[in-house]
Design brief:
The complex is a heterodimer of chains A (414) and B (249). Chain A has 414 residues and is mostly helical. Chain A has a single domain, classed as Formate dehydrogenase/DMSO reductase fold. Chain A is 72% helix and 1% strand. Chain A is built from 17 helices and two strands. Chain A has a two-stranded antiparallel ribbon. Chain B is α+β, with helices and mostly antiparallel strands. Helices cover 25% and strands 21% of the residues of chain B. Chain B is elongated, with a radius of gyration of 23 Å. The chains are: A mainly alpha (414), B alpha+beta (249). Chains A and B meet through helix 1 of A and strand 3, helix 3, helix 4 and strand 7 of B.
Amino acid sequence: MNPELIRSLQELLPQIQGYIYPNEIEIHWGLLIVVYPYITGVVAGAFILASLVKVFNVKEVQPLYRLSLLTALAYLLVAPMALVSHLGHPERFYEILLTPQTSSAMAMFGFVYAWYLMAVLLLEIWFVHRTDMIDMAERSKGATRLLYRALSLFSRDKGERAVAFDHKALKVITIVGIPSAFLLHGYVGFIFGSIKANPWWSSVLIPIVFLFSAIVSGIALVVLLYMIITPLTGGKINMKCVDKSVDFLFYAVIVDFSLEMVDFIHRVYQSEEEIKILSEMVMSKLFSSLIIIQVLLGMLIPLLLISLTKIFKKRFSLNEDMRKMVYFISVILIQFGIFATRWNVVIGGQLFSKSFRGLTTYKMGFGGIEGLLYAIFLLALPIAILFVLLKLLPPWKELREEGEVGTEAAGAGV
Amino acid sequence: MNGRRSFLRGFFAVLLSGGAIEGVLKLFPSKAHAKEAPRTGAWYGYGVSVDKCIGCARCMDACKNENNVPKEPFFVRTWVERYIIRKNGQTTVKAIAPGDEATPETVSDKRILRSFFVPKLCNQCANPPCVQVCPVGATFQTEDGVVLVNEKTCIGCRYCIQACPYGARYLHPVSHTADKCTFCYHRISQGKLPACVEVCPTQARVFGDLNAAASPMSRFLRMNKIHTLKPGLNTEPKAYYANLDGEVR
């Protein structure tokens, strides 16, 4: 028996409003499960940003290509950690891979994840960096040399035909990669959206909303990282690139916001059995995280700020620092907004009783596996992994490019 | 040579795509419809006479003792709800706890429209959403229609707890696996009654084989107007309620 759990549940008892089923006092999916869709969202979004360069030939975004791929990888490596550590029996995690039940949405996680990691992300990163890794191996000695040799899978061919094949392969992988990235995060949305017992989750729109919020969070995060990393490494921020990325970010936020509004209006207009308890929940328990952080700070204010730079184009185009500041604030606000979105879906879906008669409260712990500290660790870990990846496969040359260089040449890292 | 090569290419393409289609089809639940009652053998169901329940909570005690359910009120396999519906339409619901009957919360009689107790437990759905979502197949339906959890393979992901519309499941704080009512499977497979049915002093709880021509269960279904909980979700519960009030969810 876990006396700490019992104590914390006892503390929750006086905070219950109305009637909830006795088994509903314990909130089963806590902070870790909030972190999980946030992280996979960043993965999918960062990859979509990278595909803008390769598939849609948006040359301005070229400097962000490698950075976004490495960001996607760093976050993808951490995604399963959040899932596994929240299990009652983390040591049995392999059962989900060995004996998956095909009717379960969750059981497919292993396959979707493995597909995305192995068939898309690692392959693309390998092909992008292949010639670079060969160069690095040639330039270095001892263990480092062996490391790069191993990373390049002992390929040494830098001939024209080999490089041409790299390009061809990259094109194919990215084209396969876009639906895969959609699959990865749409799938995470489906895990929630397919639960008919829970009207807050059960919606066909949820996977699509997840997708667009993923694109929003991914682009915003890569732009943020670029704006921080570039000056730190002594480079100059390429405003053409940032302008273009923020353009895409702007459209993605508009689509995301519209979709969420459609969902909201649909629910209110249909006004089914659960509408009373859901609106009570939104107005009391979720007010600050949904209305203030998700909608106001995470969407409306960034939209307003970015549109200001578009409306007063002349004034802003003269003042780069001003634009930088606006973008910087916007992408940070958007990160908080998207994290709040995940919170509102995951925690919000468990705050109301399935009897539709009452609300409970989520009390976040500080220490321990389900606590705040561990969540912060999980959110910081991808940054640390990214740091290592950037050391290993430095994108500096590309990051500092002006963006006018041909896509092909820069993409191959020649 | 070319002919053979193109034939082989086509052959493998068909094989591959066929395999892919089959793989996709396998993703869909094999049981799109409720598992039907077998023609032979038992198919267990449960009856609750709402009008007979006096809210003594002996069933809750018996269940906790029989099945090693933690004594704390946050973990239950069965519970009893008390409904008080006032004349102004306001409804108050409370899960009663053993020992509560000594100090009932009273409402002036004049303001009460009607009041009753509703025992709740796992509905042992014929089309169980918990079984559908379990990623490792640890939650399964037996041949006689009882949904059980294998605590040796349950990974404790709690997806089934989220998928249950009735709040019947909880995570056992000792085993860290999902737990819920089993109709006292260890008892019924020896021909005994579930503990809660055994101790109910008013026979508000009835249990039996739905296939049997003559059993308290089939008599219960014959003699009463029957309703189930949240029928709109197509879970096809096998916990049947007699005289269930529309306010009950």
